[in-house]
Design brief:
The chain has 213 residues and is mainly alpha-helical. It has one domain (2-201): Transmembrane di-heme cytochromes, Chain C (Fumarate Reductase Cytochrome B subunit), CATH 1.20.950.20. It contains seven helices and two strands. The chain has a two-stranded antiparallel ribbon with strand order 1-2. It starts with a strand and ends in a 12-residue tail after the last strand.
C-alpha cells in the first residue's frame, strides 16, 4: 500500500492538545509533591502552582468543549464496539509481527474504536473522580456552610483524589507509549505538531465497467 498525507489535526486542536499535556504534567509533578512523594519546590509553592494549573486547565476545557460542539468534532469521541477485538489483537500481538494496522485514520474518523472507549472511560469516570475530589479538596472550608461535612471526610476525598491522580498518570503514560506505534517512533507526535498525518492508502479497485471481460 502507498502512503498519503492528509491534514487531520486543526490548529486549535493541536494548541489545546499540547497545552493540556503541559498543564497535566505540571499537575502531576506538583500533585505528587503535595502528596509527599518527594520535595522539589516546597509544599506551599507546589499547592499554589497545582491550583493555578487546575484552574487554567478548566478554562482550557471550557473553550475546547465550545470548540468541539461548534465544529462537530465531538462526534470523534462517540464510542463504538466495532472492530475493538481487532484493535486489541493488533496492540497485543500484531504490532510485534509487523501486521498492517486494522484502522485507517480519516478526517472524520481520527480515533480508532479502542481509543474512543479509552476517552469514554476518561470522560465518564476518571475526570469526574479527579475533578470532583479536587474541587471538594479546594473548597474544604465551605463544607460546613453547604452541609457536606456531615457526609464527607477530608481523608476520604484525599484518597479519591489520589486514586484519580494514579489513573490519569497511567492514562498519560499509555497515551505517550501509543504515540510511538506509528510508521516511525515520532510519526504521530510529528502529526500533532504539523497537523499532517501519513496514512496507508489502500489501492482502489477499477470500476466494473472498465474491467476487461
Amino acid at each position: 500500500m502507498s502512503e498519503n498525507r492528509i491534514y487531520i489535526y486543526k490548529r486549535y486542536e493541536r494548541f489545546w492538545h499540547w497545552s493540556q499535556a503541559a498543564l497535566i504534567i505540571v499537575m502531576m509533578i506538583t500533585g505528587f509533591e503535595i502528596h509527599g512523594s518527594y520535595t522539589l519546590m516546597g509544599f506551599r509553592d507546589a499547592v499554589n502552582l497545582h491550583t493555578l494549573a487546575a484552574w487554567a486547565l478548566l478554562v482550557l476545557w471550557a473553550f475546547t468543549i465550545f470548540w468541539q460542539f461548534t465544529t462537530g468534532e465531538w462526534r470523534q469521541y462517540l464510542p463504538s464496539m466495532r472492530n475493538v477485538s481487532a484493535m486489541v489483537l493488533y496492540y497485543t500481538v500484531g504490532i510485534f509481527k509487523d501486521v498492517p494496522h486494522p484502522f485507517r485514520k480519516t478526517v472524520v474518523q481520527k480515533h480508532n474504536p479502542l481509543q474512543r472507549l479509552a476517552y469514554l472511560a476518561l470522560l465518564a469516570f476518571i475526570s469526574p473522580l479527579i475533578w470532583g475530589s479536587g474541587l471538594l479538596y479546594l473548597f474544604y472550608a465551605q463544607w460546613p456552610g453547604l452541609g457536606l461535612d456531615k457526609y464527607l471526610t477530608l481523608e476520604g476525598v484525599a484518597i479519591a483524589h489520589t486514586l484519580g491522580a494514579f489513573l490519569i498518570t497511567a492514562f498519560f503514560f499509555i497515551h505517550v507509549y501509543l504515540t510511538t506505534t506509528g510508521h516511525t517512533v515520532f510519526a504521530h507526535i510529528k502529526a500533532m505538531i504539523t497537523g499532517w498525518e501519513e496514512v496507508d492508502e489502500a489501492p482502489v479497485a477499477a470500476p466494473a465497467a472498465s474491467r476487461k471481460r
